[in-house]
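Can anyone check this?
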Amino acid sequence: MDSLIGFIQLGLRHILDPNGLDHVLFLVALAACYRPKDWRHGLAVVSAFTVGHSLTLGLAVVGLVGVSSELVEFLIPITIVLAGLENLLDLGRSPRGWRRPLLAGGFGLIHGAGFASYLRSLFSDEVAVPLLGFNLGLEVGQAVVLAITVASLAFADRLLGAGRSLGPGRRHTELALAVRTLATTAVVVTVAGRMALERTPW
Protein backbone atom coordinates (compact mmCIF):
# COMPACT_ATOMS: atom_id res chain seq x y z
CA MET A 1 0.00 0.00 0.00
CA ASP A 2 2.85 2.37 0.85
CA SER A 3 4.40 1.61 -2.54
CA LEU A 4 1.13 2.38 -4.33
CA ILE A 5 0.74 5.69 -2.48
CA GLY A 6 4.35 6.54 -3.25
CA PHE A 7 3.82 6.08 -6.99
CA ILE A 8 0.55 8.06 -6.84
CA GLN A 9 2.50 10.93 -5.28
CA LEU A 10 5.19 10.50 -7.93
CA GLY A 11 2.65 10.76 -10.75
CA LEU A 12 1.07 13.79 -9.13
CA ARG A 13 4.43 15.53 -8.75
CA HIS A 14 5.37 14.68 -12.33
CA ILE A 15 2.38 16.61 -13.65
CA LEU A 16 2.68 19.54 -11.25
CA ASP A 17 6.47 19.85 -11.43
CA PRO A 18 7.60 22.95 -13.39
CA ASN A 19 9.78 20.58 -15.44
CA GLY A 20 6.54 18.94 -16.62
CA LEU A 21 5.31 22.20 -18.13
CA ASP A 22 4.73 20.59 -21.51
CA HIS A 23 1.93 18.34 -20.20
CA VAL A 24 0.35 21.27 -18.35
CA LEU A 25 0.45 23.36 -21.53
CA PHE A 26 -1.29 20.58 -23.42
CA LEU A 27 -4.12 20.46 -20.89
CA VAL A 28 -4.45 24.25 -21.07
CA ALA A 29 -4.58 24.04 -24.87
CA LEU A 30 -7.37 21.46 -24.64
CA ALA A 31 -9.38 23.58 -22.18
CA ALA A 32 -8.82 26.97 -23.81
CA CYS A 33 -12.03 27.03 -25.86
CA TYR A 34 -14.44 25.62 -23.28
CA ARG A 35 -16.99 27.26 -21.01
CA PRO A 36 -18.62 25.57 -17.99
CA LYS A 37 -21.68 24.69 -20.07
CA ASP A 38 -19.44 22.68 -22.42
CA TRP A 39 -18.37 20.29 -19.65
CA ARG A 40 -19.71 17.16 -21.37
CA HIS A 41 -17.65 17.71 -24.49
CA GLY A 42 -14.66 18.72 -22.39
CA LEU A 43 -15.01 15.51 -20.39
CA ALA A 44 -15.04 13.48 -23.61
CA VAL A 45 -11.81 15.19 -24.74
CA VAL A 46 -10.03 14.66 -21.41
CA SER A 47 -11.23 11.05 -21.24
CA ALA A 48 -9.88 10.38 -24.73
CA PHE A 49 -6.53 11.87 -23.74
CA THR A 50 -6.49 9.71 -20.60
CA VAL A 51 -7.23 6.53 -22.60
CA GLY A 52 -4.51 7.42 -25.10
CA HIS A 53 -1.75 8.13 -22.61
CA SER A 54 -2.74 5.21 -20.35
CA LEU A 55 -2.55 2.78 -23.28
CA THR A 56 0.90 3.87 -24.43
CA LEU A 57 2.18 4.21 -20.87
CA GLY A 58 1.22 0.62 -20.12
CA LEU A 59 2.55 -0.83 -23.38
CA ALA A 60 5.83 1.10 -23.18
CA VAL A 61 6.49 0.27 -19.54
CA VAL A 62 6.17 -3.48 -20.17
CA GLY A 63 8.38 -3.22 -23.24
CA LEU A 64 5.78 -3.85 -25.96
CA VAL A 65 6.29 -0.40 -27.50
CA GLY A 66 9.64 1.29 -27.87
CA VAL A 67 10.06 4.85 -29.09
CA SER A 68 13.11 7.09 -29.05
CA SER A 69 12.87 9.35 -25.99
CA GLU A 70 14.41 12.22 -27.97
CA LEU A 71 11.74 11.88 -30.65
CA VAL A 72 8.95 11.71 -28.04
CA GLU A 73 10.23 14.81 -26.23
CA PHE A 74 10.20 16.65 -29.57
CA LEU A 75 6.73 15.42 -30.56
CA ILE A 76 5.09 16.40 -27.26
CA PRO A 77 5.36 20.18 -27.86
CA ILE A 78 4.32 19.57 -31.48
CA THR A 79 1.05 18.06 -30.17
CA ILE A 80 0.59 21.18 -28.04
CA VAL A 81 1.01 23.44 -31.06
CA LEU A 82 -1.45 21.34 -33.07
CA ALA A 83 -3.98 21.30 -30.24
CA GLY A 84 -3.67 25.07 -30.00
CA LEU A 85 -4.14 25.56 -33.73
CA GLU A 86 -7.19 23.27 -33.61
CA ASN A 87 -8.76 25.77 -31.21
CA LEU A 88 -8.86 28.29 -34.05
CA LEU A 89 -11.04 26.16 -36.33
CA ASP A 90 -14.23 26.96 -34.39
CA LEU A 91 -13.13 30.24 -32.86
CA GLY A 92 -15.93 31.81 -30.81
CA ARG A 93 -18.16 28.73 -30.89
CA SER A 94 -18.50 25.84 -28.47
CA PRO A 95 -16.72 22.70 -29.75
CA ARG A 96 -18.88 19.82 -30.97
CA GLY A 97 -18.42 16.46 -32.64
CA TRP A 98 -15.68 13.88 -32.36
CA ARG A 99 -12.75 15.68 -33.99
CA ARG A 100 -11.28 17.01 -30.75
CA PRO A 101 -11.72 13.79 -28.73
CA LEU A 102 -10.06 11.79 -31.52
CA LEU A 103 -7.16 14.24 -31.71
CA ALA A 104 -6.80 14.24 -27.92
CA GLY A 105 -6.70 10.44 -27.89
CA GLY A 106 -4.06 10.37 -30.62
CA PHE A 107 -1.95 13.01 -28.88
CA GLY A 108 -2.38 11.10 -25.62
CA LEU A 109 -0.54 8.17 -27.20
CA ILE A 110 2.53 10.39 -27.61
CA HIS A 111 2.30 11.86 -24.11
CA GLY A 112 2.01 8.35 -22.66
CA ALA A 113 5.33 7.44 -24.25
CA GLY A 114 6.83 10.49 -22.54
CA PHE A 115 5.45 9.40 -19.16
CA ALA A 116 6.79 5.88 -19.74
CA SER A 117 10.37 6.97 -20.38
CA TYR A 118 10.32 8.62 -16.95
CA LEU A 119 8.56 5.80 -15.10
CA ARG A 120 10.58 2.94 -16.57
CA SER A 121 13.75 4.01 -14.76
CA LEU A 122 12.05 3.90 -11.34
CA PHE A 123 11.28 0.20 -10.91
CA SER A 124 12.98 -3.10 -11.57
CA ASP A 125 10.73 -6.16 -11.25
CA GLU A 126 7.16 -5.28 -10.32
CA VAL A 127 5.13 -3.47 -12.96
CA ALA A 128 1.50 -3.44 -11.87
CA VAL A 129 1.75 -1.31 -8.71
CA PRO A 130 4.08 1.37 -10.16
CA LEU A 131 1.97 1.57 -13.32
CA LEU A 132 -1.34 1.81 -11.47
CA GLY A 133 -0.09 4.25 -8.86
CA PHE A 134 1.73 6.51 -11.31
CA ASN A 135 -1.30 6.61 -13.62
CA LEU A 136 -3.64 7.47 -10.72
CA GLY A 137 -1.27 10.24 -9.70
CA LEU A 138 -1.25 11.59 -13.24
CA GLU A 139 -5.05 11.70 -13.26
CA VAL A 140 -5.19 13.55 -9.95
CA GLY A 141 -2.58 16.04 -11.19
CA GLN A 142 -4.50 16.43 -14.43
CA ALA A 143 -7.69 17.18 -12.50
CA VAL A 144 -5.86 19.84 -10.45
CA VAL A 145 -4.47 21.51 -13.58
CA LEU A 146 -7.85 21.47 -15.31
CA ALA A 147 -9.65 22.87 -12.25
CA ILE A 148 -7.19 25.78 -12.05
CA THR A 149 -7.43 26.34 -15.80
CA VAL A 150 -11.24 26.33 -15.84
CA ALA A 151 -11.38 28.73 -12.88
CA SER A 152 -8.89 31.07 -14.59
CA LEU A 153 -10.78 31.00 -17.87
CA ALA A 154 -14.08 31.65 -16.08
CA PHE A 155 -12.46 34.65 -14.41
CA ALA A 156 -11.25 35.86 -17.82
CA ASP A 157 -14.80 35.51 -19.15
CA ARG A 158 -16.10 37.67 -16.31
CA LEU A 159 -13.53 40.34 -17.10
CA LEU A 160 -14.41 40.29 -20.78
CA GLY A 161 -18.10 40.32 -19.97
CA ALA A 162 -17.72 43.40 -17.76
CA GLY A 163 -17.13 45.71 -20.70
CA ARG A 164 -20.09 45.19 -23.01
CA SER A 165 -19.11 47.93 -25.41
CA LEU A 166 -19.51 45.67 -28.44
CA GLY A 167 -23.14 44.82 -27.90
CA PRO A 168 -25.15 42.48 -25.70
CA GLY A 169 -26.31 38.94 -26.15
CA ARG A 170 -25.00 36.04 -28.15
CA ARG A 171 -22.73 38.09 -30.40
CA HIS A 172 -20.87 39.49 -27.39
CA THR A 173 -20.58 36.04 -25.80
CA GLU A 174 -19.05 34.58 -28.98
CA LEU A 175 -16.66 37.52 -29.28
CA ALA A 176 -15.56 37.20 -25.65
CA LEU A 177 -14.97 33.46 -26.09
CA ALA A 178 -13.00 34.11 -29.28
CA VAL A 179 -10.78 36.70 -27.58
CA ARG A 180 -10.13 34.48 -24.58
CA THR A 181 -9.44 31.41 -26.72
CA LEU A 182 -7.16 33.32 -29.09
CA ALA A 183 -5.14 34.91 -26.26
CA THR A 184 -4.71 31.62 -24.38
CA THR A 185 -3.84 29.72 -27.54
CA ALA A 186 -1.28 32.32 -28.61
CA VAL A 187 0.60 32.02 -25.32
CA VAL A 188 0.51 28.21 -25.31
CA VAL A 189 1.57 27.85 -28.96
CA THR A 190 4.42 30.35 -28.53
CA VAL A 191 5.85 28.53 -25.52
CA ALA A 192 5.36 25.07 -27.07
CA GLY A 193 6.87 26.17 -30.37
CA ARG A 194 9.99 27.31 -28.57
CA MET A 195 10.15 23.97 -26.73
CA ALA A 196 9.92 22.10 -30.03
CA LEU A 197 12.78 24.11 -31.50
CA GLU A 198 14.93 23.44 -28.43
CA ARG A 199 14.21 19.69 -28.61
CA THR A 200 14.72 19.17 -32.33
CA PRO A 201 16.39 15.73 -32.56
CA TRP A 202 18.33 16.50 -35.74
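Reply from J.R.: I decoded it. Residues 2-198 form one domain.
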